[in-house]
Amino acid sequence: MSDEIRPIPSIPPGLIEAARRGTLIPFVGAGASRLAGCPDWNGFADAALSFFVDKGKFTHSQLDQIRHLNARVKLAIAVGLQEEHKTSIEFKELIHPDGNLNNKKGMRLYGSLSAMGKTFVTTNYDEWLDKEINIPELLPGKTVDASRVKFGRKRESKYQVQDFTAANLNRDNTVIHLHGALADPDNMVLTTQHYVRHYANDRLTGEEGKENRVLTFLEDLFEYKTVLFVGYGLEELEILEYVILKTRHRTGEDQREAKHYLLQGFFSHEYELMRSLKRYYLHECGIQLIPFLRDQKDWDQLIEVLEDFARKIPAKNLEQLQEFLEMERLRNG
After folding, report:
1. Residue 175: CA atoms inside 13 Å, Cβ hemisphere, count?
2. CA atoms of 153 and 36, how far apart (whole Å)
């Protein structure tokens, strides 16, 4: 059957063409960081609250009473405690509990992403994309030896809203942290209120100075680049939907042909779920779902998929014609 879920999916022709032209942008979510040893959303929120338990500013009893709450609600409580007690949460220790980037799965996963892209967008705060990670060779049918994977150049990290520009999407060796970064913890997008403010539609009023540069950046990204979403499991799709639909509903666009792609893992018994989500993301978001099978290796299968993709569609420089057209568009407003 054409929709069969395979451990290693075929690469859609549109994705191959985008890689050839140098217009492919990997858009990386929390699922990738979890494989690299970072906590999931709930673990991150609990760790932020436990930080205040350890400081004697919050009790185990209080923590137990709110343990069932949504992660963003718990993060809002943690941010409130931070303001109340004038004590900064040590986010880097929570997100990178091992203290450095030496997780073997992370080296393989982010090494493959480094081979596939030159510019990255992420909703993650962690530092896994802040340096190149070089894989010496990607051989068919061979698992990458993590001990041979090495860190390369430091990437230029953009995490302030004023740096969210179309020009930075054409800069090699650049990562754009859409929700902030550990280098600037005070401006990390953590709570529901932060999200609402970050993606506010105030610019629709036409008032001068009301432009939301985040939305403008996303519109440029989705219009002029081809995006491959990586690391967005079902629990992260709320973020993905918010980012995509907030942009597309402004233009009234109703797309039936995919320009962007989403890698998503499924078990074999989730075949009908996969088919339903495939239709939903194509019709509502203009995104083609690329399913892969989790039966044997669970989410670790994503690493195998990315290694296969990196071998077949390595990163290319932006073609001169494409770059010329984009620069002309920017000059002409």
Report:
1. 25
2. 19
